[in-house]
């Protein structure tokens, strides 16, 4: 039911944000109101949340004791995601630079901003690590829709943006320590020989495998936070660059028919994907033979834009794309390494990332 509501409201939320961006005063007021509501939601400690101090390598940070695997956690964070959308619009419309005195940016608490989106992404990581098997398909389905093209723009994408917002305002060492704590990996990295001692116990093979997966997921998240800057307002790009990148990465997996490609792209409120305006710049159309369908193939010069850690890839798509791109490089007698592409610079509001 919650995801049904999310799907129905996705375009409404997007249009509301666009409407706010049309008037600077409205955008500022909406941002203030949304922040006030978010601060109310975070007021005080709930069950299981106790203040603690984390220390690693001479760095210390105060946070709360919270285990995603044991405490209450939700995949639905509407207020946080709305604030993330408005924050990006402050950057995109340059309101943040024109009227800094009217905005409560100095009042923002980075740990507060990142807390719930981080919990949500840790939950996804734990599901991938097989830690929630006993919860059946209900949670698996929630994670699926969270990343699905119909919902991700106002869910997963906004969580990444909110984390980028918080991280850009805080000491990276502090963020990494909080991240280790939420991923429940803090003990492994902070205790000498903990990992060696733990992995030597044969009885804990499943736990070792889970920890390895969680470490991979955590590193993947760090790569996303630094590398995903193709949202207008986060990076110095426009909407055309964003849709081009989506198409490039879909066609990096395999050539696709028009209908298949459209299904893989997010639609706006008018059921438009924006594909038609950019497809010729990134793909060739291969006409159908006597049987079969016409297919779009990625232009060779666009292959350099391929990023193996593109955040909208599922694990299966990532594997297929990697295999396809390496095969292509072997055919062209090139080095099969897949270096990351040159990234656009961040907007000033996110520059400290």
From TrEMBL:
GO terms for biological process: protein ubiquitination; ubiquitin-dependent protein catabolic process via the N-end rule pathway. Pathway: Protein modification; protein ubiquitination. Keywords: Ligase, Metal-binding, Transferase, Ubl conjugation pathway, Zinc, Zinc-finger. Residues 243-339 form the E3 ubiquitin-protein ligase UBR1-like winged-helix domain. GO terms for molecular function: ligase activity; ubiquitin protein ligase activity; zinc ion binding. SUPFAM superfamilies: Winged helix' DNA-binding domain. Coiled coil: none annotated. Its EC number is 2.3.2.27. GO terms for cellular component: cytoplasm; ubiquitin ligase complex. It catalyses: S-ubiquitinyl-[E2 ubiquitin-conjugating enzyme]-L-cysteine + [acceptor protein]-L-lysine = [E2 ubiquitin-conjugating enzyme]-L-cysteine + N(6)-ubiquitinyl-[acceptor protein]-L-lysine. The keyword Zinc-finger applies. It is an enzyme of class 2 (transferase). It comes from the Eukaryota. Ubiquitin ligase protein which is a component of the N-end rule pathway. Recognizes and binds to proteins bearing specific N-terminal residues that are destabilizing according to the N-end rule, leading to their ubiquitination and subsequent degradation. Belongs to the E3 ubiquitin-protein ligase UBR1-like family. This is E3 ubiquitin-protein ligase. The lineage of its organism: Eukaryota, Metazoa, Chordata, Craniata, Vertebrata.
């Amino acid at each position: 039911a919650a995801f049904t509501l999310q799907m129905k409201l996705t375009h409404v939320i997007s249009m509301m944000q666009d409407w706010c961006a049309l008037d600077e005063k409205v955008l500022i007021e909406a941002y203030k109101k949304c922040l006030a509501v978010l601060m109310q939601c975070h007021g005080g400690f709930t069950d299981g949340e106790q203040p603690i101090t984390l220390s690693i390598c001479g760095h210390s940070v105060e946070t709360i004791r919270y285990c995603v695997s044991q405490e209450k956690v939700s995949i639905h964070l509407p207020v946080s995601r709305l604030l993330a959308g408005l924050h990006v619009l402050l950057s995109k419309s340059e309101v943040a630079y024109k009227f800094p005195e009217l905005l409560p940016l100095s009042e923002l608490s980075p740990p507060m901003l990142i807390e719930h989106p981080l919990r949500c992404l840790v939950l996804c990581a734990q599901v991938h690590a097989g830690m929630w098997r006993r919860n059946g398909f209900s949670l698996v389905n929630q994670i699926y829709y969270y990343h699905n093209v119909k919902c991700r723009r106002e869910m997963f994408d906004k969580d990444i943006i909110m984390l980028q917002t918080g991280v850009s305002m805080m000491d990276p060492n502090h963020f990494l320590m909080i991240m280790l704590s939420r991923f429940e990996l803090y003990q492994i990295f902070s205790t000498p020989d903990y990992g060696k001692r733990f992995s030597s116990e044969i009885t804990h093979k499943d736990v070792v495998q889970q920890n390895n997966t969680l470490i991979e997921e955590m590193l993947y998240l760090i790569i996303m936070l630094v590398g995903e800057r193709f949202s207008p307002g986060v990076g110095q790009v426009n909407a055309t660059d964003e849709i081009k990148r989506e198409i490039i990465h879909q066609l990096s997996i395999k050539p696709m028919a028009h209908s298949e490609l459209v299904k893989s792209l997010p639609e706006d409120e008018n059921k438009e994907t924006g594909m038609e305006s950019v497809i010729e710049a990134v793909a060739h159309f291969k006409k159908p033979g006597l049987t079969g369908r016409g297919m779009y193939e990625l232009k060779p010069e666009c292959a350099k834009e391929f990023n193996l850690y593109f955040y909208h890839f599922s694990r299966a798509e990532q594997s297929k794309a990697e295999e396809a791109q390496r095969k292509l490089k072997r055919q062209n007698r090139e080095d099969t390494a897949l270096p990351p592409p040159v990234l656009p610079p961040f907007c000033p509001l996110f520059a400290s990332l």
